[in-house]
């Protein structure tokens, strides 16, 4: 029996699982727009990202924190450009994964997305694409004021999915998030190689 047959609920992270990570060119574009060295921007970008994902700060506040860390100040139009570049950089879809999601739904599986995601990206996805409509349930961190690996965000997702934890499987490219899921009784797979994961599930 294929591993996929052992589960009724399938929960997917977004960045690094359903979409590719930012490219070096996009990171450089952010740095050039900000007028900040690329290495500095990358460090500051992630330093307070979870606050942005959790909805504790707005996009403008997040980028001004980065500016402060770099010893500068961003003008509003610069922040608007940075938010646009940032959102678009997280919309390079891995269509192989989206096709698998469609196949799983065709098999009658329940499908969810569970993502640490800032509001600007989430609202852009809602307004410009139909991607979120392809899931039975979506839990986005900024909407529930909780981020992985906090237990509350997994609990919200499981409740919305309507499948018990022991009948669900979770895919995330960060080991800490997989460990957080396992604490709730979910089976978790660290998503480092898409082809290897699909082979594992279908084999």
The end-to-end span amounts to: 8 Å
For the sheet with most strands, the description reads:
5 strands, parallel
**Number of DSSP helices?**
11
Helix content: 40-55%
Element-by-element helix/strand order = EHHHHHHEHEHHEHEH
Radius of gyration, in angstroms, nearest whole number: 18 Å
* Average pLDDT figure: 97
Beta strand count = 5
Strand order of the largest sheet: 3-2-1-4-5
Overall 3D shape: elongated
**Could you say which structural class the secondary elements and strand pairing correspond to?**
alpha/beta
Work out the strand percent: 5-15%
Poorly predicted runs: none
List keywords for this structure.
alpha/beta, 203 residues, 5-stranded parallel β-sheet
Short description:
Helices cover 52% and strands 11% of the residues. With 203 residues, the chain is of the alpha/beta class.
Q: What would your notes on this structure say?
A:
By secondary structure, the protein is α/β, with parallel strands linked by helices. 52% of the residues lie in helices and 11% in strands. Strands 3-2-1-4-5 form a five-stranded parallel sheet, sandwiched between helices. Helix 1 runs antiparallel to helix 5. The model has no long low-confidence stretch (mean pLDDT 97).
């Amino acid at each position: 029996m294929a591993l996929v047959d052992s589960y009724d609920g399938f929960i997917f992270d977004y960045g690094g699982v359903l979409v590719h990570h930012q490219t070096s060119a996009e990171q450089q574009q952010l740095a050039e727009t900000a007028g900040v060295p690329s290495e500095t921007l990358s460090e500051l970008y992630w330093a307070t990202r979870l606050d942005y994902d959790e909805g504790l700060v707005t996009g403008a506040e997040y980028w001004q924190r980065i500016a402060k860390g770099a010893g500068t100040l961003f003008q509003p139009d610069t922040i608007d450009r940075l938010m646009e570049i940032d959102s678009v950089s997280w919309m390079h879809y891995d269509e192989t994964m989206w096709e698998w999601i469609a196949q799983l739904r065709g098999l009658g599986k329940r499908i969810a997305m569970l993502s640490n995601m800032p509001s600007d990206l989430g609202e852009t996805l809602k307004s410009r694409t139909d991607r979120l409509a392809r899931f039975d349930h979506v839990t986005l961190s900024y909407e529930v004021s909780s981020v992985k690996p906090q237990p509350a965000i997994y609990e919200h997702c499981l409740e919305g999915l309507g499948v018990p934890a022991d009948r669900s499987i979770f895919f995330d490219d960060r080991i800490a998030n997989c460990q957080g899921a396992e604490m709730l009784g979910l089976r978790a797979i660290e998503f480092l190689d898409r082809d290897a994961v699909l082979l594992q599930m279908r084999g």
